[in-house]
Write a structure and sequence with these properties.
Blueprint (H helix, E strand, L loop, with lengths): L5 H11 L39 H5 L15 H16 L11 H10 L8 H27 L4 E8 L5 E10 L5 E10 L6 H8 L11 H24 L10 H15 L6 H16 L1 H4 L5 H8 L13 H32 L8 H7 L10 H9 L6 H14 L9 H7 L4
Antiparallel strand pairs: 1-2, 2-3
Amino acid sequence: MSRLTTGVISQNFNTHHDNIDNPDDSETHEPQPSTSGSSMAPVFLSASSGMSRPTEAARKRKQTSIIGYVPKKMTVDSKKKIDGALLKLFTKDYQLFRVVEDEGFKEFVKLLNPNYILPDRHSIFKTYIPALYEKCVVEMKELVEKEAQSVCMTTDCWTSRNNESFMAITIHFIDSNFSLRSVLLGCFEFNDHHTGDSIRGTLELLDKAPENLKGEEWIILKQMCQVLKPFEEVTKVVSGEKFMTCSLVIVLSQGLVDVCSKMSKMNYNPRVLDIVNKLLCTMLEKDTWKNLEKSRMLCRSTFLDPRFKNIPFLHSTTFLETTKEDIIENLTAIIRIKNNQTADRNEQIPPPDNGSEEVQNLQTFGHQSISIWDTIDHNAAEVQPSGTSTSRAIIEVQRYLEVAILHRNNDPSNWWRENSYN
């Protein structure tokens, strides 16, 4: 097979690289001698060679100018999109405004789009952020008017790192797509105490107070907060993860009944009193609530909690005696097991050493065993523990009840750790 001549190479340039000027390009090509030194005949271009000559238009096409790669001027829509993405750094990620003046950030943005000019931090918080706020207000008003048929309003109070107090007012509603939506109505400085009256006064800062809340209804809401506060406290206590809660169940249930009984006699709004009475009746009539003191596990836990002991059972002699007898019965069984273990260990103890070999020989002289320990061993064998296991259990329980009550903020586990009997 013959090698390609320079004429074929020229043909390849014209066919595949027509945008590059070929100084040797001409209408006809003279035969070129082979540079390989071979004696084979050179290859000439001809119509029969299967390589067609490129057209005149293809040969005249030029390489794209560098100006064609320069980015075009940024449109207004493109700038708005980039501005919106930039503002999310501050509205969503809470970045500082001065980030736009950092050299590294500037180089990063310039590499992404050299035509985009970063606004300075003063323009962001004086122009861009206020404009975005007004746009958001219009959108939220349209959303509420279109989707919110009824709303639930919540307030959230907190203190910033600068020790400044604020209160946010938010409404929540279900839209037509059954999606929960939340809209922030406002956020105000709140330097007063977090009481119902203070919050109510701050709510009046709204441009338009809720139409469905009247003066009497504000009073009802305030009283309902007082009614539900004990239930909130109980919920937090029984949800604790760092302390035991089993011994608190009976105490807390009694506390709720007692609180509701007192609130039912207070000078509340009739609608509030109706709710209080329903809560009280439900607690007193519900089987689960009434059967709490019938649970042995709950009664044992409460009785053995040094913060409460027998106090939660003083209202009922029956429950007190039942719980006390149950504790004594379990303690008796424990004492019995301890006594049996002690007796077994005593049987395994070898007889006492009566002295040296010479003394033992004197003791056994004349086939009689004489020891200085005879009297004490005989008397020790006749001595029995004072009282039965049951009587000892009764005494132990009585001693436990006579010890001062532990403060309810203390840890009962620590008390038992310090007063455990080995």
